[in-house]
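anyone seen this seq b4? input:
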Amino acid sequence: MQIKTINLHFTLFLHMKKLYVVFALMLALSACKKAAIDRTAYFAQIGIDSNKIRAYLIANNIPIKKVGDTVGVYYQVLDSGNVASLYTQSTLVTLGASAKILGAKDTLTKPSIFHPSYTLGSVIRGWQVGIPLIKKNGRIRLFVPSRYAYGMYDHQNPFIPANSCLDFDITLYNVTN
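predicted toks r here
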């Protein structure tokens, strides 16, 4: 009786193991398919964002300057600043900024009398590549594609819809290393 019980448990164990392997395989295959779809959507969004930003800059007679060849962040230096600055990911930047969705009339955020400080490595990627283009006391306008802002996710407070290209006006008050 005891041997039959052990055999029964062993047989159940083997069936459970087979089911586990099948389940794991199904999960892995479904994740691969989703990753392929996400990757396709990501690359399609790069083209959409690039066309949207370039069309906006041309329509508004804003000189086109692009950060690097592959980044997709465009900028307009409004004041280059007057104090040479060295930037790293741990550089503390104190700034004032206004933001709006590209082409919108209303701003999402407005500069205030309070100027927050951020570690450069902790802000959105568009700021990480754009802020080092100016010196302390400088001002820059950044046109940031969605992948260098909040990507394919909605952002709360203020609400920014997924895949939004953003237009920032940033004044750099201080740089601390």
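The chain has two helices and five strands. The chain has one domain: 1-177. kinda curious what u guys think
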